Amino acid sequence: MPSQCSDNAAVCVADVSKTFRYSREAVHTLKERALHPLRRRPQEEIHALRSVGLEVGQGEFFGIVGRNGSGKSTLMKCIAGIYATDDGQIHLRGRLAPFIELGVGFNPELTARDNVSINAIMLGLTPAQARDRYDSIIEFAELEEFQDLKLKNYSSGMQVRLAFGVMVHVEADILLIDEVLAVGDVAFQQKCHDALQTARDEGRTILLVTHDMNAVQRFCDRAVLLEAGRVMELGEPRSVCRRYEQLNFQRPKEERGALPAHLGDGAAAIGETWFEDEHGTRTAMITHDAGCAIGMRVQFREAVEDPVFGAVVTDERHRVVFAATSASSEPRSGAFAAGQEVTVRLRFHNVLASGRYFASPQVAYSGTGQRLMDHRENAATTVVTGGRQGAGTIDLPHTVEITAATTAGDEAARA
């Protein structure tokens, strides 16, 4: 391992750069090359990675995010050894299993059995081990009825199932997973997530490339944001995801004018944010098992139809506890004119356990995609009191019922 990486690093990327070169004037025929053998054709360069440095600890679930063209897949292919790096070094500790691109390593003219054997052996299993695990792989992929079909007759979802089934059964130390998981259906995606959690519990290292920020915050210990081939942010998943959303949805300054440095495109601006108790009084302390609300004052800078108001509540360790939103409320939020100011309250019954919590309010456009107008990170905080000690993140009201088990003798006596 290089000196700048720790002894616990499973993956160490040290100042890695990768450039692709291509010519705008392609030669299509032998005649063109014969007539102009010495013509210099100008070449363009794409700097896919620029001095990228990071390390992933053993047993860590690590997310890699970024916009299209940011260098995510190039980095994964460099780690997998598919691409050679131009500069820098990559060091791995343990056996690697990549799941980077749909269909890579599969022969469409072969059946599932043959493809499983070839891929498993390529990933480090012996032929005997590949044969022993074949039934388990096919069962995981839910392809028992299709195992004698050639892969060219498989749908993309079926190929994902087969490839992922092979990957989780080779028991590699490091798993590289690109966003091809999104091809599977919802039930299989959850099955994959469960398998990844099991692999993580077993101490394996997982690198996940995805555009799903919910998955990053739900599964990853840390994450990195790439932009134009450079590391823009590296650290806690929630912070990385917010920076990613800022890159995607914030308009350039010349388009939006002078606005506060909040996250979003500036069509709305969140002012004050606070917690209040069941009586509507602003407070820095709320009681467990009582009504409460998150309040915010919002000013619209543009005319907006049916905005979605919401807030995310996190605990002291920055874990998301729950999210409140007006997206499913009826009637809809309504139409607001430029310059109009409103007060929004998100009410809920407080079942949070004792401790400190933070509210991050936001205003978004209606529809899918979570296009933000404004977001304030940790804009308000409160302390919950009155909950039971050691109750976990939430302290749900509950009762305990104990019933004595009846025996055969008791039943006979009653008869």
Explain what you see:
With 415 residues, this protein is of the alpha/beta class. The chain folds into two domains: 9-23 and 44-243, Rossmann fold (3-Layer(aba) Sandwich); 260-385, Coagulation Factor XIII, Chain A, domain 1. It contains ten helices and 20 strands. The chain has helices spanning 30-35, 72-80, 112-122, 127-141, 156-169, 186-201, 213-219, 237-249, 253-256, 408-414; strands spanning 9-23, 43-57, 61-66, 87-92, 96-99, 174-177, 205-209, 222-227, 230-235, 268-277, 285-287, 290-300, 304-305, 308-314, 320-325, 335-336, 341-350, 355-364, 372-375, 380-385. A six-stranded mixed β-sheet has the order 5-6-7-3-8-9, sandwiched between helices. Helix 3 (112-122) crosses helix 4, helix 3 crosses helix 5 (156-169) and helix 4 (127-141) crosses helix 5 (156-169). The longest helix has 16 residues, at 186-201. It is globular and about 85 Å long. The termini are far apart.
List keywords for this structure.
415 residues; alpha/beta; 6-stranded mixed β-sheet; 25% helix
Write the layout of secondary structure elements.
Layout: E1 9-23, H1 30-35, E2 43-57, E3 61-66, H2 72-80, E4 87-92, E5 96-99, H3 112-122, H4 127-141, H5 156-169, E6 174-177, H6 186-201, E7 205-209, H7 213-219, E8 222-227, E9 230-235, H8 237-249, H9 253-256, E10 268-277, E11 285-287, E12 290-300, E13 304-305, E14 308-314, E15 320-325, E16 335-336, E17 341-350, E18 355-364, E19 372-375, E20 380-385, H10 408-414
Parallel strand pairs: 3-7, 3-8, 5-6, 6-7, 11-20
Antiparallel strand pairs: 1-2, 1-4, 8-9, 10-12, 12-17, 13-16, 14-15, 14-18, 18-19, 18-20
